[in-house]
Structure formats: structure tokens, C-alpha cells
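=== RUN LOG ===
request id: a7f3
mode: sequence -> structure
chains: 1
length: 275
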Amino acid sequence: MKLVDLSHPINIHTPGWVGYPGSKIYYTQTLQTNRVVSQRIESSLHVGTHLDGPMHMADGGGDMASLPLTKLIHEGVIVDVSDEVSDWSIITPEMITSKVEVKKGDILIIHTGYHRYYEGKPEQDLTRYFCMHPGGTRDLAEWMLERELAWWGIDAGSGDHPMNTTIRHMRPDLTRRFEQKVGMPVRDYFGEYTYTHHRSGREITEDLFPLHYLAFPKGCIHAENVGGDIEKVLNQRCIIGAFPWKFEGGESCPCRIMAFFDVGDLTVEEMFQAV
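=== RESULT ===
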């Protein structure tokens, strides 16, 4: 069996998403004073490679502990769209389906190439990474729901286009540049959408986060800041697994994401039955 790590390391320099704190890491005991080494970490859950849980964006949604192993580990595909995207590009379903077959229930990882701008990389550019990466719109969210994806991931700071998140309010300077690029106000470019609250039935009109608000209530969650050796496995089908904590009450969680190749003839379902 071949394993490929699709995760970034976490350290004191690891950034949180825009507006979120990074991690505070320090020693609480040392060998020379206490005969043991102990460390403490205080952190947002949205640092490094992490999986957003349903309750992150779905009122009354499930926590991390509620995610079954059969959802976290499943057959899937890693697709390379890096040749079709650049700063602020829109990722479309056609970019994906022209490269790979996406089956119902798959895990899908999207490679944009923006992982090379992440912290610690030779081309590190965190403003470009978090605020200018490509992303999808409502069309991509609806396509993912039709495919009934177990979950999906992206090698960028968010599953949503950065100008379709609160970054448009936090970085008005970049919003102005985006509007100059597309030739219209950002609200007009992305528009509004309506969805039904999954608990109360209330009709909601929203203008941000379609890849979160539309998908999470229906279980189509996603991982952000995918990286590691992703370039070694582009446009390949494999078993993909995310390994967050079994975190009761957790809305999201840092995790290790792995791709498994050469696992033999067993399907994922048969593997779990064998266990």
C-alpha cells in the first residue's frame, strides 16, 4: 500500500483564516526543571489543514464526533485545475469533469496550485493565498450536492471564493481591485441566493459563503488548506481519508488528510466490514 500525505505541518507560524487567530504554543514543563517535556497550545480550529464540521455553518448541525468513519474515509479523486485558474478565478464544475470522473458519494480534492503560496513555502504569499485564491460559486455548490459528495477539499484558504466571503468587508482595498478586474460591484458579480433553513423552514436570502451555507446543512462539508505532497497524485483515483479528533461539540478540527493507493481489491465498504 502507498500512502501520500496531503497535509501541511502546524507550527507557531501557521496562520489562521483571515480574522481568526493563529496558534499560541509554549512549554509548560521542561526536562531540566520538571524531568518531563510538556507543551500547551491555544488555537482556533481553523488553522493548518483542517476539516470544517457541519455545525460550523449549519444551525444545529452535527459536531466532529458525529462524522462516521465511512464518511471520513472513502473512495475519491484529486483533480488538477491549476492550468485553468489564476487570481480570483471562478472554479466551475466543467473544469473538474473535463479532467476526472466524479462518482456519486466520492471525496473530491481540488488542486488549484495555490498551496505553493502557503506559509513556509518558497513562494509564500499569504495575502494571495487567503485573499486572492480561486473559488467556486453557487453553481459549484449545487453540483457538489447533486454528486452527493462525502466531503471535498481544496489547497487554498477557503472552500468559497475569497470575494464571496467576509474578506470582501475586511479587505476593502482588495475588494476595490477585484471590482476593477471584473468591471462591476462585487455584490452584483456574485449576486444573492436563497435557501431554506434546514430546521425552521425559514427562507433565507444570503450574499456570502454559498459553498458553506448551501452545502453544510446537507452534509457536504469541506477541508481547507490541503497541501503536502498533493502534486504527486493529481488526476488520480484513490482512497482518501481525513483524520480529525473525535471531538464532541467541535465545529471544526485540524486533521491529517491522506491518500491511499494500492489497497487491493477490497472496496471501502468491505474494508470496514472486515474490521
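=== NOTES ===
The first helix runs from residue 31 to 34.
The CA atoms of residues 138 and 210 lie 5 Å apart.
=== END ===
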